Amino acid sequence: MSGHPRTWFVVLPDTEAPSAVAAVQDTGAARVLHHPSGRPWIIGDWPTAELVSARAGEVHLAVLGHSSADTAALRRHAERPDGADLTALADRLDGSFHLLVSAHGTVRAQGTLSGLRRLHHARVNGLPVLADRADVLAELTGQTVATERLALRLLHPLPHPLGLLSLWTGVESVPYDHSALLAPDGPVRTVRRWRPPAPRRPPAEAAEAVREALRLAVAARTAPGGLIASDLSGGLDSTPLSFLAARGPGDLLTVTFGSVDQLHGDAPWAAAAAAELPGARLLVGAETLPAMFAGLEHPGEQGDEPFAWTRTRARDEHVARELGARGARLRISGEGGDEVLQLMPAYLRAIARRHPVTAARHLHGHRARLRWRLGPSLRALADRRSYREWLADAAEHLAATTPPHGTTLLGWGVPPRLPPWADSEAVHTVRAQLLAAATGAEPLAPVHAQHQLLHMVHHSAGAMRQAVELTARVGTPYTVPFLDDHVIEACLAADPALLGTPFAYKPLLTLAMAGVVPAHLLRRPGKGDFSPDAYEGLARHRRQLADLTEQSALAAAGLIDAAALRRACVGLYPPGTSYAALDATLGCEQWLRARTTHRTAPAPAPAPAAADGGHRNTGTSPTPGGH
Prior knowledge:
alpha/beta, Glutamine Phosphoribosylpyrophosphate, subunit 1, domain 1, Rossmann fold, 7-stranded mixed β-sheet, 6-stranded antiparallel β-sheet, 18 strands, globular, disordered C terminus
């Protein structure tokens, strides 16, 4: 099974604009859907099996991605009086997808709450357009990389709302909880479509909601059949997804990865789970995988932002090719489970007034586990700074060499830091942007813990989005059900004390999967650690990492001190840095290097083929019609 070329699409308003349409088509578009008026609507290139569309009168609906949608149901929705209402349609669909409608001359579009599927907007020859990739719009508008925005990507973690900034000043992003509106005339407008639910569901009700959301999320991916690969580490994230995938109509191939650590905890748990599952099993030993940090001397094709999981990129490509050769249609991953199934200790703020005894007991548990002293913990809980004040304060400590105290998890989150190899001018540039953002920044949720959960989801989804694109290009694509909208919502609505408790590991999931996964497999108290693999890979590839700092593109752009980065690569880490900081910098270095040698437009493709269909695409050439 070979991969698919870069997936992308551009959305046009329902208006006459020959020069803008021609510019989009000149990028090598392979497919086109049309407005009910007959004008071009969605132009781009995507796997035929990932499009479902239907028309009824003046309403044309399109779903792009992995979804439970089918043509008949879409047409029935389009025929309703509220047929253009994407909110009502999104409530009925499961999976991960872009949702678009052209109705009565107006376009509405939305991605996912996680940011795994995004939308950007820009003006092409004066016409406002949308796209799922920022680099496609940058190519269409002739924009160059904004170095000051790239400097932000050296931050860890990258705080909201700066993660929404594309790397081109003429290309803006649609907030993940908003829809975008394109009228025949006028600019792109964004409208809020979602707010976090109140975190009040009791354990039994919350568990039922999570079980159903996960069941439907996996079913949306397995329903077409074929061979489905599912990661199986034996952990509490991948194991339930494998059992749910086994219920699908296709064949199951479970995949377990080895570690250089002979005492790694995954192996016995994965073996026990595999014994309870049907289908074949693939054991991928550490000796057969590229070492971490391999291949960094070759940037390869890049996405519209730096690849965040730099140290494992070569492994991701290797596994995608291996699974593709075996004929696997999708690889289901448990990534995202950590982000949605565990609240940071800031949830104590939400329960302190309603359940003071529980809050006190949980605080004691977190302090014992994390070795916090009582005084700093109470002061952190008493911190009443707004999110804007917190962000402004964080801007003043970007270059601090000591890591933030762990009790910051009791507030808005871990303050961002720049690595010690950041150039002084880059520090100044990043600080100015944080202070500017702080003047109008709003948290992702009014509840501190929900804000932190959504921020972690957005942060991780950025990395996963690049991994999805990379793996789809070379072999079997990667997919993450835990980041589907309905799963995120179900987790956010749960009682915070259940999600955040220090006395159990992911209790919401163990409750939800009772009866789905054998009880003995739900007793695992933690997860495996691949730090030894990272250390081994770093030691093996230190020379290549050091060579990467020679003639560094980031240094040439005035963003880093190449000598300081070289010292970090070949010696012990300076204080305050981490693998995540090194990953971010190496990802930016590769991304910037690649952009100096590769065009950002998609590769040329055959002349556009009509993709308007009243059918579910199954890999055959789409045909017009479907009214």
